[in-house]
Structures are given as structure tokens and as C-alpha cells.
Amino acid sequence: MGGVVAGITLCYCGPLGTGERVLRPLRTFGTPLEDNIRPIPYRTLQSAGDVRFPFGHQHYWKTSILKHLSDEAIEIMVRFMAQTPSPASGIALQQMHGAASRVKPAATAFPHRDEHYDFMILSQWSDPADSESNIRWTREFFEMMQPYLEKGAYVNLMGEEGEQAVREAYGSNYERLAALKNKYDPTNFFSLNHNIKPAS
């Protein structure tokens, strides 16, 4: 069986009866291939996707911010997913909404608090010999999405994108974070991440 399949992962935190009412329009929309919505511990939800990313696979991810889910952007996503060189690859749209979007941009390190989607191309494949075709597909896909994407990203989703991408991920908070780094880690000892260099 082939073709492009879409899934929705969700979390409702509150009384079960209220949750059932809130989710009823989604659960009655069309005929899903599978419906796994049920009460589970939050820790279980956090690890629910692990099975889709088996140990030992090759990975190449791209991510950015998608402000508007336009018809044109959706058409590009569907077209590229229909041509993916690996059935293990996918796209994810993580919605920034609700309480998370009401936090002030300067309140935490993450500044992108307006309503948007974290757009992710999650490319993975099992055979290292297939790396070239999968990486090329990912880069071409990401390039086609550029007219619809904003500068910035959720830093935990980034690959090796370079210093400028790190600056864009922290946006208006970068200089303040660099000053903190200068105070508490002036030698840049903690550097094995998407690194903020000391201000000096």
C-alpha cells in the first residue's frame, strides 16, 4: 500500500468529559484509518513517536517557521511527500498556539511566541548508500518551501545549520543570552550544542 498519509497528534489536558466534547468534531471528521485518541499519561505521549525513529537510521532534518498554512504550501508538501525516496521520511507541523503563544518573547530563551507552525522535514533512511538521494530530496523540498517560511526555528529541531541559523532561532534574545554566556561560561566549555558564543 502506497500513497501519502496524514496524521494528527494532539494533547488535551483537562477533565475527560470536556475533552471528549472538544475533540468530537475532529473524531467525526471523515473516516480515519486509525483512531488512537485515549487517556494516557503525559510521559507516554512524549515517547509515543519513538517507534517511528528506530535506532541506527540515517537522518537529515530541516526546520523553520511557517506562519500560514496556505493552499500553495500544502500542495508543495503533498507533491514532495509523494516523491520521497524513503518511506520512513515525513513532515511535521507543530502548532504554536494557546498558552504557549501568550508568553512574552523575552520571558524565555525561545522568542517566537506568535501563532505559527514549526515546519519540519524529517528525513530518515536505513541504508547509508541512499544518503545522497535523501539529502538532495530534503534540500530541494526545503528550498521550494522558502517563499512560505519565516526566519527562525525551534532550536531543538535544528541540525548543523551554522551560527546564523542559531542567531535566528534565538532572535531578539540572542544578545542577552550571549551576555549570560559570557558571564557564566566565558571559555565556551559548554559548546556541544547549537552554541551561543560568549559575547566577548
Structure description:
There is one protein chain. The protein has 200 residues and is an alpha+beta fold. It has 2 domains: 8-48, no CATH class; 49-184, Vanillyl-alcohol Oxidase, Chain A, domain 3 (3-Layer(aba) Sandwich). Helices cover 31% and strands 14% of the residues. The protein is built from 6 helices and 4 strands; from the N terminus they run H-H-E-H-E-E-H-E-H-H. It has helices at residues 16-27, 42-46, 71-81, 131-145, 163-170, 174-184, and strands at 58-66, 90-96, 116-125, 149-150. It starts with 15 loop residues before the first helix and ends in a 16-residue tail after the last helix.
Q: How far is the N terminus from the C terminus?
A: 57 Å
Shape: globular
Largest sheet: 4 strands, antiparallel
CATH architecture classification name of the largest domain: 3-Layer(aba) Sandwich
Number of strand segments? 4
